[in-house]
User: Fold these one by one.
Assistant:
Number 1:
Amino acid sequence: MTRYSAWSVFTNGLAGQRRWKRVWRDAAPKEGYDIVIVGGGLHGLATAYYLAANHGDGARRIAVLEKGWLGGGNAGRNTTIVRSNYMLPGNRAFYEHSLKLWENLSHALNYNVMFSQRAHITLLHTPAARDAAARRYNTMRLTGADGELWSLAQLKRQVPHLNYDNARFPIIGAAVQQRAGTARHDAVAWGYARAADALGVDIIQNCEVTGFTRDDNRVTAVQTNRGVINIGGAGAKTPGKLGIAVAGNSSRLWSLAGLGKLPIETHLLQAFVTEALKPLLDQVVVFGVGGAHFYISQSDKGGMVFGGDLDWYKSYAQRGNLAAVQDVAEAATSILPCLGRVRLLRHWGGLMDMSMDGSPFICKTPLANLYLNAGWNYGGFKASPASGWYFADLIANDRPDPVIADFDLKRFRRGVNIDERGAGPDPKLHG
Ligand SMILES: Cc1cc2nc3c(=O)[nH]c(=O)nc-3n(C[C@H](O)[C@H](O)[C@H](O)COP(=O)(O)OP(=O)(O)OC[C@H]3O[C@@H](n4cnc5c(N)ncnc54)[C@H](O)[C@@H]3O)c2cc1C
């Protein structure tokens, strides 16, 4: 692997950019692996990287199986918002750990993931919302994260273009996390893939898992469109293990493994980008009141990147409908009226793995060597470093770290709901 540095950019420039090496190998599937991760999105790639980097010693043979191309799922479809403004036990330590990993990710991976800590601003419209934000952001400050409340005057100074004059829901201030921001989603997928590959992980694209071979309560092999791949078995240095990190396809894989139903619904979420503009918005701005839900930032290329709520119906179709487009466009122009004359360049959809309480699963399963990573709702991009970190730890050590102790499938039976939004047991309401 070429180590990226100012010097390597300089010397490759002198050589006409012809000396760069492949970023990762195009691995063909082997007969078997010690650990197989299904899903080449951010969570699968991060898991493989941390398995090799934190628990590696180079002994385990690790593969990531991806049915399409790397980053073709939600990994490359999200609006790239990274934050740790969570209040509930369970979530807050997890997301703060993730944010800390983000802060050093480009160095750790030797790949510029373009993490930009430009601040995440949640607009406040009522005194009740301000009180709730004060409780949440004070909890964050008391437990090691950063957070602040801005007055209206402060907000106007920082973000002058919002609709302060005749908004249906007048803005009264904002809750702000300064260390939050955005990153380049493809770069994160490529950075993890490159770093995992350099540590010996086989990243196998165009390799769809179509079935599981089970021996009592263990998975012994997976069937794929590129042949059977053994989990452990002959030549294995450790008992074979299988992790699934397939986001919107989680319930499909779960039922393929013969495990019945998973408490996850798959819903559509769309995102949008406009033509490139001169610098307009330096922060991530979030607007949510009266049924509206809208978030926006400006990409480094100048496009305004934004999204809203789910499309409100379950589907695996990976494309959305026009009603959601209208809804999001209305929210956009109500809060930033200057967007009314900007042309939309593209919009697309992704498959959200919505759980019953809006929080994820990183856990063991009824099968002894099968591990589950799912339930990321709208928030799995920011979670990907910590998700990979703790999922790798779970797979390597066969027990959950205390930070993820409640991210298991039995939490509902114990009466534990990590319902950050207070939306109740309705997956589509957990944005
Ligand atoms: C429009 C949109 C906006 C979003 N905005 C944000 C945001 O601003 N901030 C945030 O934190 N999160 C956001 N998210 C959520 C975030 O993108 C996801 O939670 C996260 O990417 C999911 O994890 P992943 O990257 O591993 O998933 P994916 O990238 O979907 O990876 C799963 C992979 O599994 C593969 N797969 C599925 N079935 C099989 C099979 N049978 N065999 C082999 N491979 C298989 C798929 O092809 C896919 O590549 C957004 C999502 C969308 C769609």
Number 2:
Amino acid sequence: MPSRRELANAIRALSMDAVQRANSGHPGMPMGMADIAEVLWNDFLKHNPGNPRWADRDRFVLSNGHGSMLLYSVLHLSGYPLSLDELRNFRQLGSRTAGHPEHEIDIGIETTTGPLGQGLANAVGMALAEKLLAAEFNRPGHDIVDHHTWVFLGDGCLMEGVSHEACSLAGTWGLGKLICFYDDNGISIDGEVSGWFTDDTPKRFEAYGWQVLRNVDGHDAAAVARAIRRAKRERSKPTLICCKTVIGYGAPNKQGKEECHGAALGSEEVALARKSLGWPHEAFVVPDEIRAAWDSRAAGRRAENRWRKSWKAYQAAHPELALEFERRTAGRLPAGFEDQVAKGAAAAQSAGQALATRQSSQAVLNALGGSLPELLGGSADLTGSNNTRIKGTAVYTRSDPAGRYLHYGVREFGMGAIMNGIALHGGFIPFGGTFLVFSDYARSSLRMASIIGTGSIFVLTHDSIGLGEDGPTHQPVEQLASLRMIPRMEVWRPCDTAETWVAWAAAIRRRTRPTVLALTRQALPPQSRDASQLDAVRRGGYVLVDCAGTPQCILIASGSEVAIAVEAAGLLARRGVATRVVSMPCTSVFDAQDAKWRDSVLPPAIGCRVAVEAGAPDGWWRYVGSRGCVIGMTDFGASGPGKDLFRHFGFSAEAVVNAVDSMLKKTGDN
Ligand SMILES: Cc1ncc(C[n+]2csc(CCOP(=O)(O)OP(=O)(O)O)c2C)c(N)n1
Ligand SMILES: [Mg+2]
């Protein structure tokens, strides 16, 4: 029987060999945390390599994601479908072993982070989701949801501010099944952290309300196992296990130094490390008896089968709940969803009520909330402004885990990363609100939502200078354009309640991609549409107002500027200028339509085009072309009533008419 140290050395060897072969990567962390990983994987982690999607598996998050070779090694060794060839192709184009893996559940990767600190915050979301699902679905004698969330994290994760936001909430929320291992190796890229990181980390986490296990020798398997057992006994507080480790453990000349953090050790040092570790095997060779000791497939199958037995008993005792649990964890929407949306949008269309779109959003949420218990809303301390609390929803507290509304406090970044963790865990559709301008604080979590592929919904209100008196610090200018530039992100900016229904429905359907809903503070008039126009909203851009015959000019607008374009079209029509108005609530969805649709909305022959949006103009040039005109914000706003600001910055029907006039004069069309 191989010793624990030998089992851990398999991680060390695979990691240093893969990094050496790629001549790129991070050997230090995997070699330093190998002993901890060995204990966790072989003695504690509840998982089944044969079914990485098992709903009640433990979740493992590698927050210090640069140590990805550690994760690839343990996944490979424990029997996930990740071949040795993939390890040999570490960091190569087309391999499944990227520098920083993000999410690939079929090989057991829940999430890891490139951007330090965010994995830890994702894990807080996962642990919260577990607690909420357990409260909702477990019944006496039937604990079908009962798993832990484990995190590896480093100095970098703790230096990052998002760790404060998320860990503060984890303490307040009482997430007792969140267990984190701090790789306290005293080293980050620039060297010994004593020059830039001298927090008393244990005190800091105790102040958050965590259980902290100090000074655990991260190279002593028995000590690590003892700490884990203590952590598991504590059910009301998250646990931080502070593990003293040596970065690059086993590399005789480089261990304990920043040199081994992020560069191949070099063939000489690799050879010396083999000697000092007592690992005589060739590169990428793991002896059979060590492989056999690591192989968790049989144990994993047994663990899942035990759960399946209790699941069967649950199904028999609570058939309806069991069906609902299956639906929720599979991420399927209820059968009546599409009908409800169609009816809701049609009713909003005929009601024709003037509302701020943040209020429209509230109305949609109130209508859908009852039939979509998976909606898990929240706000970063702007609930009354974001209108994100579904009517009748209780607030989640540590003692009321049935609550379905989250007060994230003033923690935009933490909120975004926690939402991503909730989405990755499954069972919920997280949405969270703040002002559009503060999406900058959360930005990296929106970007990561797109990369990882989470269906998080970001409800961003106060979406332009139209918010008024709060002034330039609160008035978004560049945010709409820059959020639209995040690949795979869908940004909806509806112009009234009917469009808000369509936008929300699109966001809810999109379970593996994130959505931004940009909503106004100020009231907007309803627009009239016939049934086919209402149906066309889902295409992201459509003809809202048309003229007889071929238009002489086309006005394109989103959100609060649609009403201005419609008013301008009326003025132009009265003067005999045939004008079309295109409402464009979601540019990327419009771009994804076939050419026939796009050309029917924006006929290529018509060059006189004006786009109006109270934001940075950049993205609109592709719709108006070089002969067109964009009315947008090219500088910051100002403090004053929203109506005055609109006029001051040129967002009025008259300004649009003037723009059309000067274009038609130039082309001699009029
Ligand atoms: C947000 C963010 N900033 C910077 C980096 C670049 N980076 C990667 S690892 C690292 C140092 C991390 O130190 P530590 O967590 O102590 O890792 P160790 O060297 O101990 O493995 C830095 C700065 C990053 N990945 N993410
Ligand atoms: Mg470190």
